[in-house]
Every structure is written in C-alpha cells, then in structure tokens.
Inverse folding.
C-alpha cells in the first residue's frame, strides 16, 4: 500500500500544475454581452437605463477600469481568482436550508431487492464500491477527464470524501478531514434516526469486504430496531441561521460534540431508510426523487440524514437507491462519476474472501436531547419544504440533425416556458470551468436574442421556424463555448462586485439596479448532469416562483427531474414537465418535416 502511495504521489499535483489559470475577461466584452443578455428578459426602457450605467461604469479612469485592474492583480496572485469567492457567495453565505435549495439528490434505477436483507446486502456492496473508488483517489490513479478534448481539473474528487459543512451563525464553513494527518477510517450509518460509526478498514489497512460489511450492517440494524429516537439529523434541514444557533446549543454537551465530530469526520454517510409511501411503478421515480432530495418530510426519512455531510448514500428497503450531496465542495459530474463506478461495482460477483477475524461492534453515537434541543428539532420538523419532482423519458435525435443535444434541450425548455407564460425569463444553465485549475462553474444564459426570436415564432404558422430554431441552437452552443473557456459574463460581474467590496469601494450602480436583480432572478435554473448509469439528479428551484430542471441525456432517452415549490401558485412542475415533452416532440416534428437540404 505504502509502495503504491510512493509511486503515485505527486501525479495529481503534476496534472493540476499543467492546467491553465482562469482568465479575467475584457471589461468591454462583458459589458456588451451583459447588455445583449438583458434584451430578452427586461423591458426596453430598463435596457436603455443599463446602457447608460454601463457607459458611466466604463468611462476612462472610472470605477470599471479600477476594479478590472484589481481583478487582474488578484488573478496574477492566486491559483483561481474566482473559486474561493464563488464558494463563499453561492454556498457558505447562502442562508436558506441546504435541503432542496442547494443540495442535489440523485435517483438511481430501482435495485433488485425488496426486503431488509436485500437492503443490507446491497448497502454492503455499495460501501465496498465507494471504498474501491476511494483507493483511486488515495493513490492518485483516477483517470483524468476531458471536455471538448481538453483535460479537466480533478480537484473536486479530492474534496467529496471525509468532508462536511459546518453551520455558522452568519457564514458556514467546510472541513475536509481527508487532508488531516490522521485521515478517517470510518463511515457513519444512520438507521431509524440513530447514527453509528462503522470502521471500514481492517487493522492491516485493507478495506472490509462486502461480506464483513454485511455482518456489521446487520448488527447496526439489530441495535436500532426502535424508531422512537429523536431525529437529531432533522436539525440539518433548517435555515442556516437557525441551525447555526441550534448547533452551538447542541455541541455544548460533550457527548453530543463527539457524536457530531464523528459524523463530520466520517468518509461518508450511508442512510438505511425506512419504508416510503407505496406508489405505482409509473410514479416510482418521482417518489424516489423526493426521497433523495429531502427524505419525504419528517414523518418519513428527512430525519434519517445529516444534510451537512458532503456525501450521503441512501438505500431504502424497497430497492430505492440514490444519494444526496452538499454542493459547496463539488459539482454533480464528479459525484455522478463516483456513483457510476459504485453501481458498476455492485453488479460484479463477489470474489474477495473475508479474513476470519471478529470485528468490533459498530459504535452507536449518543445524543443528549435537552428541552432546548427538542424545541429546535420540533421547529425543524415544521419548516421542511415540499417539492413536486417529476421524472420522465423523452426521445432525442438532435445529433442526427447536426445539432448540439444540450442546446436543443435548452431551446425546448425555452419554448416550454414561453408557451406557459408568454414571456422569456432569466435562465441559468451551469457551465463547467474545470478546464481551468480549481475551476467551478459559470452561467450559460439560455434566454438569448436568438432563443426569444425562435420561441415567439414557433406557434405562428407564417414564420420560418426551422431557420430560427437552428440559429437559436447555434447561439446557445456558442454561448456554451464562450462560458467553458472562461469568457462568460456572470462570474466576471460578480468578481467586479466582490473586488469593490474588497477594496472598500462603492458597488457599481450597474450592479445595483433593477435590471441586474431581474437578470439574477432565475425562474429557470437548469443543469445537465450526464452519467453512464440510467439515473437523474434533481434539485429545487433557486427562486420561490421558479423551477429547477436537471436532465441527463442518454442515447435513446432523456431523464428529466423538474421541481417547483408546491407553495407557489404560479408554478407547476407537472405542467412544465408536460410542456417540455410537447416542446421536444414539436421540435422533432418540425425537423422531420423539413427537407434535409434546407438545414
Ligand atoms: N452535431 C452533431 N453532434 C454534436 C453537435 C452537432 N452540431 N454538437 C454537439 N454534438 C455532440 C458532441 O460532440 C457530444 O458528443 P459525445 O456524446 O460523443 O461526447 C454530444 O453531442 C454532446 O454535446 P452537447 O450536447 O453540445 O453538450 P456537451 O456535452 O458539450 O455539454 C455542457 C454541454 C454545458 C453541459 C458542458 O459543457 C458542461 O459545462 N457540463 C458541466 C455542467 C455541470 O457542471 N453541471 C453540474 C452542475 S451541479
């Protein structure tokens, strides 16, 4: 083992050092592109006002130039001028609950078991699969990923295991114990709201086999048959300010503090869930999406979680399987790559022989629940949000028509939304910045001049729709290229704002006006998370009257998860999902009816 470590140590760093640094885009370019992005989503007089503010901002010797210089200086001194700010603003300073608002869920296909024994057996294999993946992380033998032929930053893989978010009174933080001098050797299991520490390595350093893990999980389940325990984990579903306060209260007690630390330090958490409401096969995926996204509410499995934990695998008794992850350390693709590996691993026949050594009993984590903590738990139970998640299949042949599949799907989303609301809205699609060292994401603004022209014309028989569709798809793909090469506008504008704060200067007027607020009010928050496994990730809307749309385009179908808050009268996940299906089908019909020569 140590020989391997010696062999590969440094491989990761060498790769990382070879990656380019994220550039700071030219100021004038961002200002021009920002103005163009506003056109389809705000009124003409607001565009005019912003134009004036931008002129003032860009004046020679003005605030824009000064902030740009500051940013360029920062870029020359740091590995990535943006990432730390981004994690802070987008995640750690964000005070809404991580559940639904920030942490994605991942729904895997239903597994082939339907009782406790099957659940335990599968969970044991899953754990063994994650440990197998972890060996590649530890040995730095993970294959480098590529996007458009360019190697990607692999840092996020080193951030997802043995890490946890810690609530604060005003700002949260993330700790990563993988980098400590004594990296953890245990995972945490939660069953019937009770947490256990499970050591997953033998004394010789080899990981426990699936058979050994199975025995340990059985012991845990037998020690926690009672479901009357206080669901301490439900506290992690709260608004971050409330949880920050409750956290201080909780860890005042020494036992509680040790228990919380054991969860935070653990490699990951595995949730052995109790039954969820029984539903038809048709509704199964939607129900599982709810289970993965938020546990179904306090009466079901929401207390069977520690939502601050970066990575939680979830296995139900009925074959339900998936994950939930805390977003601050990583985007979906590395999580999905890990899960693809685990699913593949669980399908292999068990070959490894288990050493015949008795294993210590997994340790139950105790919590002393004072009346104050009990009150916090009751409050957390009442404030759980509900979402309606809709998952279904679509058909997709844009490649055959020489169109980017992602752009095609995004235009279907634009069309679906326009048909429901008769206007275009600010739309967010995440674009990977992993071509750059420590890169995270920028925004692809899917609502463009070209998309607006396309959706407005689509239901008008007199218009040349195919040309408009082609232009819209192309415009989206070129925005994507611009975003993944570090030339999009949103993170640059954020950077200019942060630079102003850093230098104690006033925030530029153009970043305080109504148009900017509207531009950031993403009623459509979307993301593509592709995978080998036939699964779908899901996340909640980012504004109260918005939608969260995650999709996984497979060769012959597309998995969608659409969410909206039930509490909002203006939105309906089921209606948008149906509108997306209609839009995709109508766009396909349009393409099929148009002679190829015309395209
Ligand atoms: N004709 C034929 N084929 C085309 C085409 C065209 N005009 N344009 C693209 N394609 C092909 C591509 O070559 C690619 O082929 P492959 O399946 O063999 O790899 C495939 O279609 C998919 O391309 P496309 O649909 O354009 O999307 P993409 O894979 O380039 O992804 C993004 C686009 C924006 C999703 C990607 O760049 C990205 O940033 N992903 C990360 C997003 C993220 O982080 N999400 C998680 C947030 S939690």
């Amino acid at each position: 083992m140590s020989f391997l470590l010696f062999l590969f140590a440094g491989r990761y760093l060498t790769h990382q050092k070879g990656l380019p640094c994220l550039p700071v885009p030219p100021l004038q370019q961002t200002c021009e592109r920002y103005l163009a992005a506003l056109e389809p989503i705000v009124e003409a007089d607001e565009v005019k006002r912003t134009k004036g503010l931008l002129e003032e901002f860009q004046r020679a010797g003005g605030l824009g130039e000064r902030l740009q210089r500051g940013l360029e200086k920062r870029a020359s001194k740091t590995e990535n001028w943006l990432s730390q700010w981004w994690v802070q603003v987008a995640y750690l300073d964000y005070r809404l609950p991580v559940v639904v608002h920030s942490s994605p869920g991942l729904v895997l296909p239903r597994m082939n078991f339907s009782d406790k024994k099957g659940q335990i057996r599968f969970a044991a294999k899953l754990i063994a699969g994650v440990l197998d993946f972890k060996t590649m992380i530890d040995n730095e033998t993970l294959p480098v990923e590529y996007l458009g032929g360019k190697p990607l930053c692999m840092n996020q893989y080193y951030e997802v295991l043995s890490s946890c978010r810690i609530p604060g009174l005003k700002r949260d933080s993330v700790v990563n114990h993988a980098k400590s001098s004594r990296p953890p050797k245990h995972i945490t299991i939660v069953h019937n709201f009770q947490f256990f520490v499970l050591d997953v390595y033998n004394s010789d350093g080899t990981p426990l086999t699936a058979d050994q893990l199975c025995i340990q999980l059985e012991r845990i389940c037998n020690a926690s048959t009672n479901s009357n325990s206080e669901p301490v984990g439900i506290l992690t579903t709260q608004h971050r300010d409330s949880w920050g306060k409750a956290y201080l209260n909780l860890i005042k007690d020494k036992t509680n503090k040790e228990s919380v630390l054991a969860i935070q330090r653990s490699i990951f958490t595995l949730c052995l869930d109790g039954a969820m409401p029984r539903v038809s096969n048709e509704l199964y995926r939607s129900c599982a999406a709810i289970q993965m996204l938020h546990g179904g509410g306090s009466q079901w499995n929401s207390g069977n979680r520690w939502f601050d934990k970066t990575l939680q695998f979830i296995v139900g008794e009925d074959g339900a399987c998936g994950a939930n992850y805390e977003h601050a350390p990583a985007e979906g693709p590395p999580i999905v790559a890990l899960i693809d590996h685990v699913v593949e691993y669980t399908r292999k026949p068990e070959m490894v022989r288990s050493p015949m050594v008795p294993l210590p009993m997994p340790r139950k984590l105790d919590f002393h629940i004072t009346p104050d903590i009990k009150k916090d738990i009751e409050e957390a139970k009442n404030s759980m949000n509900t979402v309606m998640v809709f998952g279904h299949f679509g058909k997709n042949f844009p490649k055959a028509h020489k169109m980017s599949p992602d752009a095609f799907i995004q235009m279907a989303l634009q069309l679906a939304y326009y048909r429901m609301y008769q206007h275009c809205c600010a739309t967010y699609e995440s674009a990977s910045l992993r071509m750059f060292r420590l890169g995270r994401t920028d925004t692809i603004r899917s609502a463009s001049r070209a998309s607006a022209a396309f959706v407005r014309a689509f239901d008008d028989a007199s218009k040349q729709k195919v040309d408009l569709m082609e232009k819209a798809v192309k415009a989206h793909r070129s925005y994507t290229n611009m975003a993944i090469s570090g030339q999009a506008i949103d993170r640059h504008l954020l950077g200019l704002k942060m630079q102003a704060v850093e230098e104690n200067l006033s925030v530029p007027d153009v970043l305080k006006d109504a148009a900017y607020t509207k531009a950031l009010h993403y009623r459509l928050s979307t993301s593509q998370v592709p995978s080998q496994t036939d699964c779908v990730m899901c996340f909640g809307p980012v504004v109260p009257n918005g939608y969260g749309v995650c999709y996984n385009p497979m060769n012959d179908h597309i998995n969608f998860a659409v969410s909206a808050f039930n509490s909002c009268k203006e939105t309906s996940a089921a209606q948008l999902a149906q509108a997306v299906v209609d839009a995709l089908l109508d766009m396909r019909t349009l393409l099929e009816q148009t002679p190829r020569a015309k395209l």
User: Anything to note?
Assistant: The longest helix spans residues 116-138.
